[in-house]
Amino acid sequence: MAAERVATQLELKSCLRCHALYAPRPGVAAQKFCSELCGTNYRANGALPASLRCEMCRASFAPRRVGAQRPSLYCSQRCKGQACRLWAKYRMRPATYLDLLERQGGGCAICGKPPTADRALVVDHDHACCPYLSDARHRVQTCGNCNRGLLCVACNVAIGHMQDDPDRLVAAAAYLLTSRDVLGLIKGDAP
Fold first, then answer.
1. Distance separating alpha carbons of residues 151 and 104, to the nearest angstrom
2. Are residues 98 and 25 in the same domain?
3. Angle, helix 94-103 to helix 77-90, in steps of 10 degrees
4. Residue 188: burial class (beta carbons within 10 Å; 0-12, 13-18, 19+)
5. Using an 8 Å Cβ cutoff, are 36 and 45 in contact?
6. Number of other residues whose CB lies within 10 A of the CB of residue 76
7. Which residue from 50, 96, 100, 155 has the least number of CB within 10 angstroms?
């Protein structure tokens, strides 16, 4: 009960840099950033730092101002667009995407294929979780809690055609292994 009252009394603020909601630390009256990193990268009136890391691709770049307020968070319009699409469709921040990619070994969660310069890995999510968010143009938007991992397009399409059914996928794998053995016997390649 007491914990609920304390939680409701906390006033959430929006970070001036990344706009994430955060609960201010106790005793810090003028806290304006969700983390120390956001505070050091934000330069409202001062000189810009010599370089920043792109929030999407982690490349180092010379910052430029966006309007009169703050430096850009992205090295290019392409990275900014990718970050915006990640949030709009999957409720995922670039840092979460990059952390997930790193946990998966830098590639597709199924086949291990790394992303290319032309094609990033797609976010796989459980379609049964939030089908009510789909619109008529098939731009699926998720709640963000059902994101499963990052897949290459081929693996994502494959599990989509199998309707995300593990039993179907196991049956398909068994079929392929069995047919390989049968074809080997037909051709005379005895095991």
1. 10
2. no
3. 90
4. exposed
5. no
6. 14
7. 50
Alpha-carbon distance of 57 to 70, in angstroms, equals 19
**CA neighbours within 13 Å on the CB side: how many for 105?**
8
**Which residues pair with residue 22 across a beta bridge?**
13
Residue 110 near residue 155 (C-beta atoms within 8 A): yes
Q: What is the C-alpha to C-alpha distance for residues 78 and 130, in angstroms, rounded to an integer?
A: 28
Contact 114, 106 (CB under 8 A): yes
168: tokens are: 């179907």
> For 124-137, what is each residue's pLDDT tens digit?
988 777 765 555 55
Instruction: Tell me, yes or no, if the pTM score tops 0.70.
Output: no
Query: Which residues, in sequence order, are CB contacts of 33 under 8 Å at separation 6+?
Result: 15, 16, 17, 39, 42
- Please give the Cα distance from 146 to 111 (Å, whole number): 21
Q: Position 91: which residue type?
A: R
* Cα–chain center distance at 16: 22
Q: Which domain holds residue 81?
A: 77-167
- Are 106 and 156 found together in one domain? yes
pLDDT number for residue 40: 62
> How many domains are there within the chain?
2
- Angstrom CA distances, 59 to 73, 74, 149, stand at 11, 9, 23
Whether 107 is covered by a domain: the verdict is yes
